[in-house]
């Protein structure tokens, strides 16, 4: 039995030496799987013209505040300054946080921001867009169906972000180049 334990311990030591590659892999997977999703979503929120980054589209309000926007007859001028600031912050976050993660710059903070973003996104999807009433979209853990958009997919996203919060940017990151811990 001690031989088996020794083999397992030696193998574990070898694997732990390779641990610094884990955050790099997480960042590459994020870039390959989720960054395009978030940037495409952010693009739908931009207003017209070169100042679109400061002038949200109608779709931005409909995505982020669906019930409130419906209640005001889809009139952007009827939305408060607070609504506009939230929409702008959400839009900018969808561009900036993925970029920071890909670059590995302020990785822990960006990943923490993405955890908050996913939490808000989930609340809006469930209650604002009414997905709470669609069991197959919400899903459930331990149900042998790994494809629900909310419980399954977003749980995996959160594990990816938690890896970056705990481990940082890893190898080949701007954090490492700048000496940021």
TrEMBL record:
Coiled coil: none annotated. InterPro entries: DoxX, DoxX-like_oxidoreductase. One of its GO terms (cellular component) is plasma membrane. It comes from the Bacteria. Belongs to the DoxX family. Keywords: Cell membrane, Membrane, Transmembrane, Transmembrane helix. The chain crosses the membrane at residues 21-40, 81-102, 109-134, 154-174. This is DoxX family membrane protein. It holds the Pfam family DoxX. It is found in: Cell membrane. Signal peptide: none annotated. It is a multi-pass membrane protein.
